[in-house]
Fold these 2 entries.
Entry 1:
Amino acid sequence: MSLFAGCFERVAATEPPASQTALPSASFINKVWKVGEPSSIPPGMLYIFLSEGTLVMASPNSRPAFGKWKSEGGTLTTMIEEGIPYKVNVVKLSDDEFKITLINPGKPTELTLVPAE
């Protein structure tokens, strides 16, 4: 017999809000990615997509820059750099490669990202 059996109220488990639901196993979020080849952007630049929507971009030759990113259904849809939103097409997402196309006003930018070591 438990002395505390009637002292605690049972609380039903609730589902997390939609913004906190699980993402697919291969995720680009909270990883440090570096630009690989082939890409329209010089190799070595770093990208970090933080879970709350901040985008961190760092280059060996300049100060870090901050932007934002948005997703729908766990898929990256928009990157915002210097206040300018760019639509994104995800070409490939795996644990060892994240390939996207940024839809710019001019020619689209191909970006191949690999995990930074």
Note: Residues 1-24 have pLDDT under 50 and may be disordered.
Entry 2:
Amino acid sequence: MKWINHKILTFSIIWTITDSITAGIISAFGSIFPDAIEFFVYYIFPLKRTHRTWSHWFVIYLIPLILISISHYLILNQTFAFFIKFFLIGALFHIAEDSITGKVPGIILKKKIGFRFFKTGSFEEYLFTFTFSSILITTKFYLI
């Protein structure tokens, strides 16, 4: 999925669920992190470039999210905890969104799972993003 679609989908889902524009924006930034960190690492260390591997393994985002959520009240800086929590949620959404345009690592890093409902960058991807986000936002305003 293209970065713009990751950001739009993640923002609209998180904003609809939480009613927090801030949470939506933070999650939208987190939604491009798995690709951005992969690009950065491969740029610095010219290794064999394999997309959607370690940076798309949900476990590395889920474990810190669980730890932050469990220890939420022990963290003195609640703003920092809020930021990190929604950033990690955005990264998890990225992985879920990528799983509908191809395969991502499952529970076992080397075992990929996913579907290919449409090709990355295709008209169908943009149509899906527009339609799904429009439905969410329209429903949100209708229910207010």
Note: The chain has six helices and two strands.
